[in-house]
Write a structure and sequence with these properties.
The chain is built from 14 helices and 2 strands. The model has no long low-confidence stretch (mean pLDDT 91). Strands 1-2 form a two-stranded antiparallel sheet. With 361 residues, the protein is an all-alpha fold.
Length: 361
């Protein structure tokens, strides 16, 4: 909105020429989302308390988590409002890719909201059925994939899968790209959802992933830089950098209240939406496989659950004290803040490894 209002004024006042630069507008989106989150946070949390929107804790979880019962949840609504507002303020709204990213985020957030609402209304830790949740994610992701494959020629969006570290290796998936995108979005969304078990853990790792993909989307959208780095250019992807900046700012603001001990939890409305958002920017930057590295922490959490279930069904024994993985470390004696910070460090490490692909191609 600001781009459309103020950039045209650059013809009479050169000061407004800064609005042409994606880097400037990305910085503006980060600050806007951050300020909105911090300013609105206290009012939002008090409103949730007044409405008795409290978290229900699993009976099978660590006993220390029972103290968190009643902490306001559905804080993801604050994240969604802040990042959406910042994106609409600073992005070029004629860019379809920005709307695709926003659409996926809101759609996955709506699924999470329905899940949270049922949990709160029924005062139990069971929301939407797994089938209903999966169906909603599948429809939202499938629609996004179809939209991408039917974009105007000016976007030159091709269903090509690039392989990190191998600059000449790619695969044209054709219409098989649709189920592939669905897999990416659903996996990322559920990965963040599983990671959201400790104060600040999920939002901290999402912040790192969002900042990492801000770099990838900027490079993909800048043909000169992309060709220099032998990176696959994607017309229009540069504007998605502003969306990533809004995601980073909103995550920082939410972390202010969600850090240990948390004043508010994001709920599924937050975790499903953020996972979908990161998955979508991975697709738009043509770095879908690299999401496995950037989101390495989420992969670890998901795999711990898969291995735990498989081991118990096949042998009757558990590999971990409890899954997802962060609970295992709690039960072997690590304090919650130590688990959180060490997992954040892993997130940063995975991000640095992924950024190495910019040169090692």
């Amino acid at each position: 909105m600001l781009y459309h209002l103020l950039f045209p004024l650059s013809e009479t006042l050169s000061l407004f020429n800064v609005f042409r630069y994606i880097t400037f507008r990305t910085g503006g989106a980060v600050v806007t989302a951050l300020v909105l989150s911090i300013v609105l946070g206290p009012w939002f949390i008090s409103t949730l308390r007044r409405l008795s929107v409290g978290q229900n804790i699993r009976d099978v979880g660590p006993e220390s988590h029972l103290l968190k019962a009643g902490t306001p949840t559905m804080g993801g609504l604050l994240i969604l409002f802040s990042m959406t507002s910042a994106t609409l303020l600073w992005a070029n709204l004629t860019n379809i890719l920005v709307w695709v990213a926003l659409g996926v985020t809101v759609a996955f957030g709506a699924i999470g909201f329905a899940d949270d609402y049922i949990k709160v209304a029924k005062k139990r830790n069971l929301g939407l059925s797994a089938r209903a949740k999966f169906l909603g994610q599948t429809l939202a992701a499938g629609l996004a994939a179809v939209v991408l494959l039917t974009l105007p020629d000016s976007y030159s969006f091709e269903p090509v899968l690039m392989v990190p570290f191998f600059k000449q290796v790619s695969f044209d998936l054709g219409w098989f790209y649709v189920p592939f995108v669905m897999l990416v979005l659903i996996s990322a969304s559920n990965g963040v959802n599983l990671t959201d078990g400790l104060d600040g853990l999920a939002i901290g790792s999402t912040l790192v992933a969002g900042a990492t993909f801000a770099i990838f989307t900027y490079v993909a959208g800048n043909r000169v830089v992309a060709e220099y780095l032998q990176f696959t250019p994607q017309p229009g992807a540069g504007e998605v950098t502003i969306f990533c900046g809004a995601l980073v700012g909103a995550s920082l603001g939410f972390l202010w209240f969600n850090s240990y001990p948390a004043e508010v939890f994001m709920g599924d409305v937050g975790s499903l939406a953020l996972g979908g958002a990161v998955g979508m920017v991975a697709v738009l930057s043509k770095q879908e496989l690299l999401l496995i590295v950037v989101g390495g922490l989420w992969v670890m959490e998901v795999m711990s659950v898969i291995l735990q279930v498989a081991s118990f069904k096949l042998t009757g024994k558990r590999i971990f004290r409890m899954a997802p993985l962060h609970h295992h470390f709690e039960l072997i004696g690590w304090k919650e803040p130590k688990v959180i910070v060490r997992f954040w460090i892993l997130s940063v490490l995975f991000a640095l490894i992924s950024l190495a692909t910019l040169k090692l191609r």
